[in-house]
Amino acid sequence: MSTSDVYLETGGRRFFACSLEWPGWCRSGKTEDDALETLLAYAPRYAIVVAAAGLRFPAKAQQRADVVEHVDGSMATDFGVPSAVAVVDAEPLTRAGATRLASLVAASWQILDDVVAGAPATLRKGPRGGGRDRDAIATHVLEAEAAYARKLGLRWKAATLGDAAAAAEHRAAILDVLRRPSDGSPVVEKGWPPRYAARRIAWHALDHAWEIEDKSEPA
């Protein structure tokens, strides 16, 4: 697998381009080309995540995207969620490979937490005044993580925004699962393969981190 390999997820109205080697580096567009162009445009922002994980982001990965797989999306794709599991996600993971993925998920959370800490409470609204403010977005991410955890065989009530200790405990448990070597199978019945879990969790954290950053800037 190349550092430039991506897959394209096709919905009815939206497409996602997602890196297979770099969890969280996923962007969408109205066409396949739009999704790929946006993915590459976000490379400098994702490079900050890679650095936070203590890894090196190859220049080749930032300059081109090699489409190695097309997957059918669903209603979730059109809603704005990369929901399809790629064929590569069923490949085995060594302990080193799993540790690498977990480090990028942890870095994605770190970036989100840093962005939340530095953002104003009230964010610039989108078209027709839509969009959530900072704390509502941060709460949404914690609630989503509780749902994602169930796909890894973990169960808990979502941490509240002010309970940093609970959030840290939950995230540590998720990372513990992601660090384990795997044969590529879902962690639990009706759950997620580790590669997809890492991609989905990191994407969600970064998608909202970047949203908060963008909406913290004046129009």
Could you say which overall geometry the principal axes of the C-alpha atoms support? globular
Q: Give Rg in angstroms.
A: 17 Å
Count the beta strands: 4
Unreliable segments of 5+ consecutive residues: none
Protein architecture, described:
There is one protein chain. The chain has helices at residues 32-41, 43-52, 59-63, 75-79, 95-118, 134-150, 164-178, 194-216; strands spanning 5-10, 15-19, 26-29, 66-72. The chain is built from eight helices and four strands; from the N terminus they run E-E-E-H-H-H-E-H-H-H-H-H. Helices cover 50% and strands 10% of the residues. The longest helix has 24 residues, at 95-118. The model has no long low-confidence stretch (mean pLDDT 94). With 219 residues, it is an alpha+beta fold. The protein has two domains: 5-84, Double Stranded RNA Binding Domain, CATH 3.30.160; 91-216. It is globular. A four-stranded mixed β-sheet has the order 3-2-1-4.
Topology:
Blueprint: E1 5-10, E2 15-19, E3 26-29, H1 32-41, H2 43-52, H3 59-63, E4 66-72, H4 75-79, H5 95-118, H6 134-150, H7 164-178, H8 194-216
Parallel strand pairs: 1-4
Antiparallel strand pairs: 1-2, 2-3
Helix pairs in contact: 2-5, 5-7, 5-8, 6-7, 6-8
